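thread: overnight batch results

M.L. [08:02]
morning all. the overnight job finished for the chain we discussed friday. pasting input first so we're all looking at the same thing
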Amino acid sequence: MYQESIKELLERYIKGECTDDEAALLEKWYDRLTHEKGATRMLSESEEQRMVQELWEKIASRENSEMGREPENRVRNRRVLRYAAAWAGMIVVSGGIWMVLNKKGVRTGARRSIAYTTISTGYQQVRKVRLPDSSVVWLNSATHLSFPAEFISKREVRLSGEAFFDVKPDVAHPFVVLAGNTSTKVFGTSFNISAYPEAGELRISLKSGKVAVEFGDKLQKTLLPGQLMVYDKESGSGQVLQESTGDMDVWTAGRMVFYKTPLKEALAQIEARYGLHIIYDKAITNRTITARFENTALEKVLQSLSFGWDLHFTRTADTLHVR
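M.L. [08:03]
and the structure it wrote out:
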């Protein structure tokens, strides 16, 4: 009965008929799955193929339609997008969450299924993953990384969240990361991408090597070591800044670093990392934050933000009020 309710809810979400109460049920189901060590397949393979394709199409259209809205008005929809994107014939195994996605493809007029593997992390989790080509990826909290079965011949991954890549060189097969409306092409290098759906910015920083980033209306920027590109999702513009290469992957050791990050963007990352739902009781000023947290216990982080940026927090369960 519970599984049937989730199936019906996902159908309503795809049609755009999901209410706040139904969204809360979807979130409860998602949270249950992320903490269980085992789960059974809820849908048939054909149902999964159809619903997964429709969910990804819905996610893309919702993200594009929300770009002009105020951040406060985007919180609920983006939370639902995050949970819906995580669903796709999910299989939960000991040590982590592995999802197998079947997305529809068309070749010479006939349909075929393309198998995708997606690796996900839960809240306050950091995981090291070795891809089939021996490239190494660190996944930050609340992150999803998917890649096709034919990855060796087509080194392309899709990212939602944050990840640090150490890519194995292969001139014949460039490594491509798709995140939001950006495409990052590399040939063998180490770099970080922060692409949480809740944030209004997408950040790409290069530690070593060289990458080409395509964004917006086919614009392209080439990054060199020590450079950070900040892509504004609403305006579609990209700005290149300088950043210490030593700070780009410190989060893999459990630390948290913000560099010239707009305050609301930092809070969006905190929201994703700790599984919070942030509500702004009043507008906060448009300031940036540069800070390094060695102790990433939520209480310590909130104390520092309260003291350094004159913010006041009230927490009830997983809801955080900010003023």
